[in-house]
Amino acid sequence: MALIAIYKQSEAALLMLATLAGFIQLLDAGVGLLQHDPGKVIGPLVIAAFQLFAVYLLSSARSSVD
Question: What is the mean pLDDT of each run of 10 residues along the chain (66 residues)?
């Protein structure tokens, strides 16, 4: 699905998939929190932050073009 969205250059699909990936990373950090494992919390939390920041940049760039 992601490769098709990239190939077709569908910004809406990329935004949706990237947002979903960010929230999955947040859920993964929650699992690490429940397991009391700092490594399983910090890693996914950092990835989620970068992922959602990239979503923000893409959506703001998309809205400035429209």
Answer: 78 92 97 96 97 94 77
- Tell me the HSE value of 22 on the side-chain side, using a 13 A CA sphere: 15
**What is the rounded distance in angstroms from the CA atom of residue 12 to the CA atom of residue 50?**
19
Q: What is the DSSP letter of 66?
A: -
The CA distance from 55 to 24, in Å, is 14
3-class DSSP string for 26-49: HHHHHHHHHCCCHHHHHHHHHHHH
Cα torsion angle, 54, 55, 61, 64, sign: negative
